[in-house]
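Record type: monomer structure entry
Structure origin: computed from sequence
Chain ID: A
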Amino acid sequence: MGQFSSLPRSGSTSSSAVISQSPLGPGSQNPVEISAYFDEPTTLEIDYTLNLPDECLACVFQSLSSGDRNRSSLVCRRWLKVEGESRHRLSLNAKSELAAAVPQLFLRFDSVTKLALKCDRRSISIADDALILIAQKCRNLTRLKIRGCREITDDGMAAFSENCRNLRKFSCGSCSFGAKGMNALLDNCGFLEELSVKRLRGITDAAEAIGPGKAATSLRVVCLNDIFNAQCFKSLILGAKNLRSLKLFKCSGEWDSLFELIANKVDGLVEIHLDKLQLSDVGLYAISNFVNLEILHLVKTPECTNSGLATVASKCRLLRKLHVDGWKTNRINDEGLVAVATYCPNLQELVLIGLNPTCLSLEKLATNCQNLERLALCGSETVGDVELTCIAQKCIALKKLCIKSCPVSNHGIEALAAGCPNLVKVKVKKCRGVTMEGARWLSASRGSLAVNLESIEPELQEAVVLENAVEEENGAVDIPNTRNRANDAASSSTARPASFKMRLASFSRRNLVPCTFRRWASMGAN
């Protein structure tokens, strides 16, 4: 760590050890000089960190990775103490054995404000007693994430929330407590801003309604994922007066009527994510009343059509990000996209999956949406070389482009060499007509452009046909593949045996939606 400096000293016949102190200046703490005199010349070691205040040492630790922090804490007792007192974020393996270590653990880490408790499904998790003990030791906790802690009950959540009333963010997944524990949390944590609930198994058909409690005015973000009876959160959503982001994924029940009620009581929503919901145009008509809406994700909502999307576009003219997965139902096409292009000039990010846009809508989007910087077209049967050429000629502001499973070829890729002057990154996935030669040519033509190509290996064609038939029966849309990448240098892929590629292909199945969304989730919040 650069902790010591060595200075040469002359030898001595004395065998005694000498410890001396030498002042560095007025008001400074003297470093310790330790030298042992032997027949050979030795060195003088000075520990300069003794003059470094604890606050400065803590700042150094905060700039290190978690592993480096752990190793640094083993240097000496002082570093162990300072590192523990300055650590605000902690992630623990929440097996039942953790309960015995909690008192000593939080005696060292007494400044933790962000805590994650995770237990794998094959292990027994901590129970109420450990959670209550943690709450008593971490009264300044502001963020808590619980995963797989199936032994925690409603009583444990109630006792925890009574001790951690300053909680601002709470996230739970694959837990077994129910509506009673959730209501206790919302009643006690009046500063709660973000609530994320995933696979909460204690929520049943007979579950009591979950209300906003004291968090009614503080809640800003609500995310519900894979909840069997998500309708019991209806009162929570309606009562969150300052709600700005609502995310619903794979939640059962009919949602049109709920959005009609929300539109009358909550007017500040700027972000809505809807994934695999029973939602129709009626729900979209209600969503169109959120005139400040900036981000909308419609993923696999097959009952939504051009009419609903056009209504949202005509009223929500501040839209910046739009993701639509039509699930190849063809209910949203050029008509709905032309409406988006007409009424949403501020659009910056557009992801179209399972839709079939043509030059009619793409040209309109490129002409009217002058700020369009990120575009993804996936699983489309109509996006070919002509459409890609249109994008290259018209999308002046485009910076990032992703084309996946579309009938484009090298001719379409070549059009990008002369168009899209601000383009910095191109991703082409599973487009059979695009070869490595085409990707290399584009990369060589525009040296500053990062080109990424993922294609299907020739030796896997037969396997792909067989597996694709199975995938189609199951309703999936992805095709297994191995990866070829052509970046700035556009190097060829490493040769591997066909058997290895076959095994890799079997593990590489990914759904179009999360793959695209994860890539773009970090592309700036604004």
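Annotation 1: The radius of gyration is 29 Å.
Annotation 2: The longest helix spans residues 461-473.
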